[in-house]
Design goal:
By secondary structure, this protein is mostly helical. It is built from 17 helices and two strands.
């Protein structure tokens, strides 16, 4: 419930300020979590951390994408997502080696301090958001700072005159309501939201099912390590085949892994130590799902205009939270039959693959700054009103 309202702050306050605010709140919540002594205190702090995690994941991913060019966006997002996977594997080791659960707060505390300091000192506000809000002077300064990082000559103010009128018009005429009033955006959000839900319940449902596959700490580490090479493969494939085909292909691969893991004879085939062939297949299925989860961040970002990008991504992220909410039910369902969760995930994967056909391909297309850019992407008729020439900022990015 908190993901959408918190992420709306990213569109209202900007990517930089909202991220710094979420980092500070994260640090406070982590300290309180580590000092908790009762179950109720733990639940309250965990609720705050979950809500803040949803907000900061959206703000950082949107800022991350708006600071990269179309040529390197997929690689950068995949490397960022691979770091998430390695962090998940590291969390399994920390949980296994920590003498007390209070000690597990130390690594994220250190991480958020580093993130906050680096973000404050190095990262400026994104030019996309500044232009969309009409802060042309600050946007030029931000672009020049980014250009300096990339050894590109600074921008001359007069080059932006044609873009500022269009951006200011977009600011006055468009708002969050365009997500619901515009048919092609509404359809895309609905299809992507179901895809996010499916991937989330696949990813976290299989993670909660780890206890039935052996040592849950080692299985969690194995799944995290499996994610890393798969996401590098996703970068290569998505950069050539496109976002839509890559999502469908990796969802199909996850589907195949889950179907094969349902063969009971595979439980008896030992690969190494206590790891069976079923363990490897389930880990691969989760890794394929994790790849699509990372690519959905890119796909959703590339579909939405700047002023509603964060709220749109957060709505899809909220649907993923519904999937993660249902994931713990795997433990209860396993008492009835271990195959029920696999059947449910397989059905969701088939539906998600078919719904992706309603979303246009975004590979190689410029990031939409306003509704008119989205209409070009969806190849629909433009709305009435003043038209402007969209300014491409990607040439200043890495």
């Amino acid at each position: 419930l908190a993901v959408a309202p918190l992420s709306s702050l990213t569109d209202a306050l900007g990517r930089k300020l909202s991220t710094e605010l979420f980092v500070v709140l994260h640090l406070v919540s982590l300290v309180l979590f580590g000092m908790s002594r009762s179950l109720y205190e733990i639940m309250i702090c965990r609720l705050l951390l979950g809500a803040l995690h949803g907000g900061i994941s959206v703000s950082i991913s949107v800022a991350f994408y708006e600071f990269t060019s179309a040529n390197t966006a997929t690689l950068n997002m995949m490397l960022s997502s691979a770091g998430f996977s390695l962090g998940g594997g590291f969390a399994g080791l920390v949980a296994m080696w920590s003498p007390h659960w209070h000690h597990t707060v130390i690594p994220p505390l250190v991480g958020f301090v580093v993130i906050g300091v680096l973000f404050h000192l190095i990262v400026p506000e994104t030019p996309h958001w500044l232009f969309a809000r009409g802060y042309e002077g600050l946007a030029i300064s931000s672009l020049n700072k980014v250009a300096g990082y990339n050894n590109i000559p600074p921008l001359v103010n007069i080059e932006l005159v044609s873009a500022t009128g269009e951006v200011n018009t977009a600011k006055k005429s468009h708002g969050t309501a365009i997500l619901w009033r515009t048919p092609f955006l509404r359809r895309s959000i609905a299809c992507l939201a179901f895809g996010w839900f499916t991937v989330s319940i696949c990813y976290y449902g299989l993670e909660f099912n780890a206890a039935s596959l052996g040592n849950e700490y080692l299985i969690m580490m194995l799944m995290g390590c499996f994610d890393f090479p798969f996401k590098l493969a996703m970068y290569w494939f998505a950069g050539r085949a496109g976002r839509q085909i890559a999502c469908q292909a990796f969802l199909g691969a996850a589907l195949a892994c889950l179907v094969l893991s349902g063969i009971s004879a595979l439980d008896e085939i030992i690969v190494y130590g206590n790891f069976t062939l079923k363990t490897i297949l389930v880990s691969c299925g989760r890794a394929f799902g994790g790849c699509v989860f990372a690519l959905f961040y890119i796909y959703t970002t590339e579909i939405l205009p700047t002023l509603v990008r964060s709220i749109g991504v957060s709505l899809c992220s909220a649907s993923a939270r519904i999937g993660s909410l249902l994931a713990p039910c795997v433990i209860l369902v396993n008492e009835i039959s271990p195959y029920i969760i696999y059947v449910f995930i397989i059905i969701c994967l088939i539906i998600a693959m078919s719904l992706l056909r309603n979303i246009p391909e975004t590979l190689g297309k410029p990031l939409p700054n306003n509704l008119e850019d989205c209409q070009k992407l969806f190849k629909t008729k433009p709305t009435r009103g003043k038209k402007g020439e969209s300014f491409d900022m990607s040439k200043f990015m890495a």
